[in-house]
Amino acid sequence: MNTHNLMLIDPHIHMTSRTTDDYERMQKAGIVAIIEPAFWLGQPRTEAGSFKDYFSSLVGWERFRASQFGIKHYCTIGLNSKEANNEALAEQVMELLPLFVCKEGVVGVGEIGYDDQTPTEDKYFRAQLELAKEVNMPVQVHTPHRDKKAGTIKSMEVCLEHGIAPDMVVIDHNNEETVKDVLDRGFWAAFTIYPNSKMGNERMVEIVKQYGSERIIVNSSADWGVSDPLSVPKTASLMLERGISIEDVRKVCYQNALDSFGKSGQMHESDWLKGTQVDQREKFSDNSVLRGGQTPVVGEVKATDSLDSNIVR
Q1: Range list of β-strands (E), 65-208
Q2: Are 14 and 222 in contact (CB under 8 A)?
């Protein structure tokens, strides 16, 4: 894998579900910054306190854990569509969101939107759009896996109905069926390179060849499922190998993520250009990233570009 030493951003990855080893591999592959959207953990939560602790970890422990490997960590905060269907709990979570959306490192409201496209999901999607508008933050929209095209178009129409400008909204999990509608309406179009289900990166190469690099973003959405935290560097490498210009690759794997979520005022290129010094002797709430007498890394860490295959299917 060769990314020509490009700096890369993965603007949708759920590091809560990943190991510390992944941070190390991502940094070596050129990832300088990530965005972790609040999401469904796989088992429905039953208490608002579970959400509060989870949101706290996104702005606390995960920021620290990423920093220990030279990666800048940002997040989006929101009530995911699946758990929005528990209306009693959703009401309590909505009361928590204003306490977190303006914290340091939060770059948007997300990931929000539709799962089964129920009336309850619609209610809390709209309520969170109003919150985003109130605090002038970008919105990260999860599009449904079932009836995707209709759900994607509905998501954009609802955003416009609430007066959210398209350039403040990243429509995520696109595919060949939805990309034209999203770009034609002026929204950011994000694509998740996720093995065996959403998209492989060979399809992503063809999309960039057809539609160019304007407002297109690549992410991994790596989580607790079978997924790949190196999907962004592997896709960057494959694009270069198959003749896409380095400037276009830089836009879809770095610059467009920075331009869209940078509208929050919380994410600046200077955050990581200042240097990649780490000190793994540091602790967060008296906890280190190290285990069992490991030797801490202290000093500058550098990407190596030393990974093998760049194909994700």
Answers
A1: 72-77, 106-113, 139-142, 169-171, 188-192
A2: yes
| Domain chopping of the chain, boundaries | 8-301
H-helix or E-strand containing 66? helix 61-67
Give the pTM: 0.94
What pLDDT was estimated at residue 214? 98
Average pLDDT along the chain: 94
Region of residue 117 (phi > 0: left; psi between -120 and 50: alpha; otherwise: beta): left
CA within 13 Å, CB half, 281:
2
Q: Burial level of 30, CB count in 10 A (0-12/13-18/19+)?
A: buried
**Residue 307 confidence (pLDDT) above 80:** no
Residue 1: predicted pLDDT: 76
Q: Is domain 8-301 in CATH 3.40.630.30, yes or no?
A: no
The token duo for 203 is: 């399809």
